[in-house]
Amino acid sequence: MLFPPIDSPATGLLCIRxxxxxxxxQEIIExxxxxxxxxxxNKKKILVIDDxxxxxxxxxxxxxxxxxxxxxxxxxxxxxxxxxxxxPDLILLDILMPVMDGFxxxxxxxxxxxxxxxxxxxxxxxxxxxxxxxxxxxxxxTEPVNYIVKISVTPEEVxxxxxxxxxxxxx
Length: 171
Fold this sequence. Notes:
Blueprint: H1 10-42, E1 45-49, H2 53-65, E2 69-73, H3 76-86, E3 90-94, H4 102-112, H5 114-118, E4 121-125, H6 133-142, E5 146-149, H7 155-170
Parallel strand pairs: 1-2, 1-3, 3-4, 4-5
Helix pairs in contact: 3-4
């Protein structure tokens, strides 16, 4: 017999045992959730905005492997919404994208609120600024942290630049 009869003296012990297990289980769950929240609060949050799925995946993998919490968006419009609602610690932003390009997104973000004015941004693009004064002028106006030509760096180098920038902010 797996369970004692309802009118058995052991029924009270069984109920106490089940209640104790339920309380302990709830405590374990709460501790796990609390610890997970603490761990996630310590993780730096990076938003990657790029319309190329393969580039997006490459940076998502590299950043997650480096211990970052990673958010993503396929264009400036969705990136702006996520930046405002999720307040990442740093944004990696492509310039040439459909729907809303990186410069438009960054200008709107910078005019949105105090967070938007101060969040560090690294522009990732395949455009070379050599001989393109209009690009350099736009970069200067939007005040990104860095300008990186995607094809000239590895994902690991981008991760290194992110860490350097975040350390600079925190020191």
